[in-house]
Amino acid sequence: MDIKTRILKELKNTDTYVSGQDICEKCGVSRTAVWKVINQLKNEGYEIDSVTNKGYKILETPDILSKSEIESVIEDGSIVKDIIYFDETDSTNTRAKLLGEEGAVSGTLVVADCQNMGKGRRGRSFSSPAGQSIYMTLLLRPDTSPSKASMITILSAMAVRTALSEVCGIEGLIKWPNDIVADGRKLCGILTEMSAELTKINYVVVGIGINVNNEKMPEDIEKIAVSARMLTGKKQKRSLIIGSVCKWFSIYYNKFIETSDLSLLKDEYNRYLIHMNKEVEIIRDNEKYRAKSLGLADDGELLIEKDGKPETVMSGEVSVRGVYGYV
Ligand code: BTN
Fold it and tell me: pLDDT (tens digit, 0 to 9) for every residue of the chain, 327 residues total?
């Protein structure tokens, strides 16, 4: 961890003033070095009060993203082991895949303030303007068979849902496999991509896009998309949401890796499944049919009842729509 992040962590750790001397001792640097970092943080937009004989206190953390800001919200013991931050990039998934090819560690987190080639599922593009939303991708190297990779998608939806509840008080629901929906509109989309051999995963990248501070959504998607700010009437701090997503992802992922079994998490997932026990429309290639959604199956598939018989549908194979519109 670099010196800027350590000082930021010290300042965020408390509600009171931290003396310059304490920071010097804890971080093993000179008074001048501390003073320089404090000025740098102020220039980035942090409001820091400095009082002689008392020290420094953070009054306001702006909604900015930087490597130090993100690192300062990642808890000890997290699965996040490295952070790569871009003010602008093509797509955090593309970056994470390149890093995966180059041997980056499992737990590399790629975040961007803006993407100029954001990708959605089914080859769609994902609009990714600067300064508003979260575009993050986690690179993982799970020691499980490729057939279990879709479960990681399920875990990520649970992590985002819980984080949005914890940080913003939004009680979103999950649209299988991994959209987060609130007020009948989409708040988050997740794109999971994998590189694997027949029996071994090389890496998985989990790309998460959350609409956070958009005041309104572009006209073409305003009926189907919503942001955290639109739902709460408040500007949110993106770094806090990222920190919470990483915290909950670590909890769910470790649970899954220990057992390679989703059944432990199935009940929780189904509790938040928007179409649990409801009629849904399954769209598969050129085929469209109605069925009853019975919730998550053990392997991350969706259990449905079609013409009175149980069946499973696999993620990536179908699109599930509520019969009354987007949800
Ligand atoms: C979807 O709903 O279609 C999935 C959208 C996934 C968007 C995220 S934003 C971060 C990561 N980088 C990308 O290019 N896509 C994912």
Answer: 889 999 999 899 888 999 888 889 888 889 899 999 999 999 999 999 999 889 999 998 999 999 999 999 999 999 999 999 999 999 999 999 999 999 999 999 999 999 999 999 988 999 999 999 999 999 999 998 898 888 899 999 999 999 999 999 999 999 999 899 999 999 999 999 999 998 899 999 999 999 999 999 989 889 999 999 999 999 999 999 999 999 999 999 998 888 777 777 889 999 999 999 999 988 877 788 889 999 998 888 999 999 999 999 987 667 777 776 777
What is the whole-number distance in angstroms between the Cα of residue 209 and the centre of ligand 1?
5
Residue 94 Cα: closest atom of ligand 1: 14
SS3 110: strand
How close is the Cα of 118 to the center of ligand 1, in Å? 6
Ligand 1, closest atom to CA 90?
14
